[in-house]
Amino acid sequence: MLYRVLGWIHSKIISKTQEIVLSVLAAGPIPKHVAFVMDGNRRYARRCHKQILQGHAEGFVALKRVGGFYVASLTYRSDALMCTTA
Length: 86
Description:
This protein is mainly alpha-helical.
């Protein structure tokens, strides 16, 4: 039952995201480049009781679903943000 609820929530989020993106695109010229910050794959995996690698894999699959764009993805490790430069 939990998986069905999570699936429903996931589909609603995807639907709303698509709606927002389409409304933004309808407001002006279609961009030739779109950048995504891949943040939250680890939290998603933990929340869904999956291995972290599976969360990253599913994030990549979701990114591949975006079609018709040149896609740039910024990925980072949270511990890398704590580093200081000399």
